[in-house]
Amino acid sequence: MNPEINNEQNQLQKIDFQDQFKPPDELQGDEHSKYTLRAWWSVIQANAFRPFKERKILYERALQFIPQCYKIWYNYLNDIVLHLEKKSIHSKQYQEANLIFERSLKFMNRMPKIWYMYAQFLQKQKLITQVRQTYDKCLQNLPLTQHEDIWIVYTEWALTQASIPTLKHIGERYKAIDQDFIEDISEYLIDKEDFNSASKLYLAMIQDSQFSSHKGKSKFQMYLDLSDMIQSYPEQITDIDCEQVLRDGISKYVDEVGNLWCKLADYYIKLGNFNMARQIYDEGLNQVMTVRDFHIIYNAYLKFEEELVNALAMEQDNEISENQIEEQIDRLEKLADSQKILLVNCKIRVNKNSVSDWIRKIELQSENIEDQLAVFSSAIDSIDPTKAENGSLADIYIKFSQFYFNYGTFKNANDILFKATKSNFKSIEDVITPLILLNYAEFLDKNHYYEESFKIYEHGLTLFNWPGLYEIWIMYITKFIERYQGNKLERTRDMFEKVLDQVPQKQCFLFYLMYAKFEEQYGLLNHAFEIYDRMVATVEDKYKLKAYNIYIAKISNYLGITKSRPIFESAIENFQGKDIISIGLRFSHLERKFGEIDRARAIYQHICQWADPRDDDTNLWNIWNDFELHHGNVDTMNNFIRIKKSVKAKFNLMPTDYKKIKAKVDAGEL
Hints:
Blueprint: H1 3-14, H2 17-20, H3 37-46, H4 52-65, H5 70-83, H6 92-107, H7 112-124, H8 128-141, H9 147-160, H10 164-174, H11 180-191, H12 195-207, H13 219-232, H14 242-252, H15 257-270, H16 274-285, H17 291-313, H18 319-337, H19 339-350, H20 355-364, H21 369-382, H22 393-406, H23 410-420, H24 434-446, H25 450-463, H26 469-484, H27 489-502, H28 509-522, H29 525-538, H30 541-559, H31 565-574, H32 577-593, H33 597-607, H34 620-631, H35 634-652, H36 658-667
């Protein structure tokens, strides 16, 4: 301690202030001073270092004359608290002090600091009931504007020191002012393992549409906390309907359906009600709408049954336990066997129009005729033909008819197929496909019903669209020509013209070839050449080179090679890239064959702009070089070299073709 302060205190103790500051009630002839704070406060300060008993007498004497003086009461009570700070709380002085506090509040009932000091003093004595009563009296006496500060300290005390009944009593009152306190109470109750009370508060918060967690929890998070509590402590939670709480969550939180079904089953398992748990698992498996939730429930169910088998196996061997084990093993095997059918049922619930899932269910019921018939009927009643997926309703009808056919009930099989024709299918392909129609027409043809087969083809042409018509037209024309050859020339030509008017460009190549071949065999050669001419002008670019080669070959074969020049010239005008080089080399070879050297050279000059001299994979430059060596002169050779350099310079400016380089590396050429 500071020496100066010690000296000052020693000096003050030596001074007898009593002689200088007499209590106002001892002053003769002064009836006014004993009713003033100033007079008494001077005396109290002058006796600040006197023993506590003497100071206490002064406070009491002062309060006889000014009992409503806040300053006297506050310092008096503060002196008492400091004096008893190191005393045992079992001392009688504490009881006397409590009475003084009670007396002070008769006059200081509007002073929050006095109430707070008294409450703190009682808390030190562990007098829970008196603390609560003191805070309650405080709230009754103070104006509403001061309640907030009192509630803060009141609730802090309740959460740290009060008993659970006291806390719940306080919470019921305070939640009308601040709902956030409910959340604090619920967490406190969980810490104290009063899960029954905590669950009630959690449920109230979840059901209150106006409630908002001050700790940032969503209603979903709070519900998961409540469901975990129900799952973990089912025996302790009795004041809420746990099953209904979990079922409400199942209907509301679709992402947690599988887990909530498992929690509900686990709730009954921990209560020892195994049969009810099985009912819950079965109900969940037959209601969930996703494969994920199905597997969650099924795996939990399977684990539950396996653990029961293991638990029974650990018991002592006797007749009763053996029977129980056998029954439990039967349950486990039955559950394992039912997995596939339960899963396909789940998929059907998700999408009742999934034909493949219905067919899978039919196959799984193959050992039970009645069940299989029921599935067939359910599938036909459930599937909307216009919304069928992964197949067609026709697939179900066909299998249903085949089912009756296999058992020899042909009338039923026929009735099913007849009923199928009345369904409103999404498209014609759901009833009949081009392949089925072609098979039917082929069947009629083999049995010599030729015109009937042609009618089937013609009917198919009205049912389907491209590209489904491609095979039908090919088979129709082929079979018709095989049957009548050239006897019905105009009808055949009409068929070809009709298909060429309809067919998409990418599928017309074969029809042109068939038409031209027909004219060659049974019609007029000029007509055939006209068709070839139409073909090279119409087909897709990827077929043009092949079309020109065929056209040139036909012209050369029938009219002589000299007549092919116009075709070559047409090809040169219509091609670019490697195709023009290929056709150009053939054309130049033809001109060289007839001694047309200048025409051949002109062709080389025209097509060389598409040939890269650095990578002469078409061999154009070598052919041209040999040509000049045999048929040219110095001027034409120089011109050849100049053109080659200019073309090479042009390709040097173009981007590198990395794909071509990679292909050569892979082929071992680089």
